[in-house]
Design brief:
By secondary structure, the chain is α/β, with parallel strands linked by helices. The chain has 14 helices and 17 strands. The strands form two sheets. Strands 7, 8, 9, 10, 11, 12, 13, 14, 15, 16 and 17 form an eleven-stranded mixed sheet that branches. The longest helix has 18 residues. The structure holds L-homoserine.
Length: 431
Amino acid sequence: MKVGICGLGTVGGGTFNVLQRNAVEIARRAGRGIEVAQIAARHLNPACNLGDTPVTEDVFAVVNNPEIDIIVELIGGYGVAREVVLQAIANGKHVVTANKALIAVHGNEIFAAASAKGVMVAFEASVAGGIPIIKAVREGLAANQINWLAGIINGTGNFILTEMRDKGRTFDDVLAEAQALGYAEADPTFDVEGIDAAHKLTILASIAFGIPLQFDKAYTEGISKLTTADVAYAEAFGYRIKHLGVARRTSEGVELRVHPTLIPADRLIANVHGVMNAVMVHGDAVGSTLYYGAGAGAEPTASSVVADIIDVVRTLTTDPNNRVPHLAFQANALSDLPVLPVGQVETAYYLRIQAKDRPGVLAKVATILSERGINIESILQKEAEEQDGLVPIILMTHRVREQKMNDAIAALEALDDIAGPLMRIRVEQLN
Ligand code: HSE
């Protein structure tokens, strides 16, 4: 089989190297040899010894090369990558991509085009790098009604949170290292603001619940406002702060949200550090399952890309109607269950309030919460801070609908006794 690689950056280079190094083992699995026939690259990757493999700067020379059976799109983004994928499909070629942004935003269109042409679009590497999570959810858990999933699905963000907590390093310093290691997106705000995680969560929710891809409905909140004080208070309550993507099926619709989250420190997923990713998936038959591995980087991501190439090769002669559907459920059996606005989501909360040090403040805070039916689970008040004389009050609440909490937060922030905006972090028990 002849493969054309489009894009020779971190993942493209890793894919080329894995295909070369493990060629014999891969052929034993696929049933035939897999040869990189041509590469499109703007710059050569010094990590690759390309030998005689032809390289062009014209990506469409690869896409339109009649000798090539499978196009591996590793350019990233929604621009040229979308044209490359749609042109490859129009040319009757199968596609393997690691591009979560493209699948999350244009996947419905791409899968429809691929189905019409009877070709495959495989995208294992688009979510959680080297973890075979698409395969696990789409095939391994196919017996289940999946109720919820929650994951650490951005390696850069987890690397930053881990280094800040463990080594006291600054946000910018760790981010620069993540960029140098090839973990971060071309625009690193995608990592720290949760957009990259929302792309991946959108894909996971679709294959878990059988709904069309709806990235525009995902709620996204980043990690840049977290403070070391919040990390320490969370620990005092027995929790860790992780940047989590959560998708949950409720009777009213699907929750689809990425935000910093307090999770109990003794959950396995709370102990996922550095660039590692982990996804918990809960099915009605299997219960809770957990998938763990490197979520970014050249060869971990190449591991998923090459597995997809092998999958495509193995099923080439299968009747297109009998292949595993792109979104796990048959295309004509997708559900119209709505994605819920974040106001309708229900979670518990961590609140940190900076209050003036005078009598009655705590009583006012408690009254505002109780008037809205918000039940306080635990409370911690620290001594006044030296620099501003303000008293940090940290509250953990029971579960409440977000709209109600927003209303309470607005009332709290309107009090004279409260300084500045308060910090709110959602809490999930994951049980
Ligand atoms: N920027 C992404 C991450 C790369 O850090 O997880 C893998 O998708």
